[in-house]
Prior knowledge:
By secondary structure, the protein is α/β, with parallel strands linked by helices. The chain has helices at 5-17, 25-34, 53-65, 81-90, 100-107, 113-118, 120-138, 151-156, 167-173, 182-185, 206-209, 229-245; strands at 21-23, 42-49, 71-74, 93-98, 144-147, 177-178, 190-194, 201-202, 215-220. It is 48% helix and 16% strand.
Amino acid sequence: MPSRLRTHEKLICAARDAGYLQTSIRDFLDCTRAGVSAASTFIVHRHDIDTDLRTTRKLFEVEKKYGVKASYYFRLSTLDFGLMREIEDYGSEASYHYEEVASFAKKNKIKDPALVRDRLPEIRNVFRKNFQWFEQQLGKKLRTVAGHGDFANRRLKVNNTEILADQQLREECGIECEAYDRSLLDHIDMYIVDRPPPQYYWPTSPLNVVSAHRSLCLVTHPRQFETNWKENTKDNLFRFYEAVTW
């Protein structure tokens, strides 16, 4: 797959020329609360760092070049606190791409969704510990988080987001927004997610709809931007191992 970093740069420039503010979920949330979103046009950039820190760094450098802010959500398996602090110091957002439901189910060999839900109190305790450790290591308050979609979630039909269907847990952790909350998405006119080639984006390329909507949310993954055989093959092999041993 050829690098798509130049396409991302092209989108940033097209959105800039069309007058869009390009920002993170955290900053967009603040704008909606202040009533600014109704009077402006936005592209909310969200990067889910499932694999490939090398390409994550390249995406960050492209966005810095144009003064673009974004949210970067890191799994426990992709943490790089040095890079994450750079992201935060620049003004973008580095936060948690959590997956405790899937991890707990695989670790405990649970394949029954009802049994997984019965153990949500335990899973929430694991999430709380991971979240607080993440904050301590980063040295920043995490205000938003985003659930990771694992193959185990699809088999179980239980999303990681069910962890945060607990208002007390949100308050204890100081989580103001989950990236899939309706309170956020109701302010988004169009939600676009990247896909592997040859589709690239769903439901359409953001370049096709720049200027057609007041607010777009673009969700992307570094592994869809550039071929990284080492990192992505390692992730694929580990996923295969998990599927076989679960």
